[in-house]
Design a protein that fits this description.
This is Mobile element protein. By secondary structure, the chain is mainly α. The protein has 1 helix and no strands. The protein is elongated, with a radius of gyration of 19 Å.
Length: 54
């Protein structure tokens, strides 16, 4: 790796953990937080029947 802060040990550990999850059929979910806004207007939401969503 070329990045000065890259840690090959951490990268290897992460890769091993990822492979172990895949072998155990555990879901791998990738999230990109750049598309989330904390104050977005949400006109609709889900809540248990009879309860208000806040």
């Amino acid at each position: 790796m070329n990045h000065p802060q890259a840690d090959e040990t951490k990268r290897t550990y992460f890769t091993q953990q990822l492979q172990a999850y895949e072998q155990n059929n555990r879901p791998i979910i990738y999230l990109d937080e750049s598309g989330f806004k904390s104050h977005d207007y949400r006109p609709y939401a889900y809540a248990p029947k009879g309860q208000k969503f806040f």
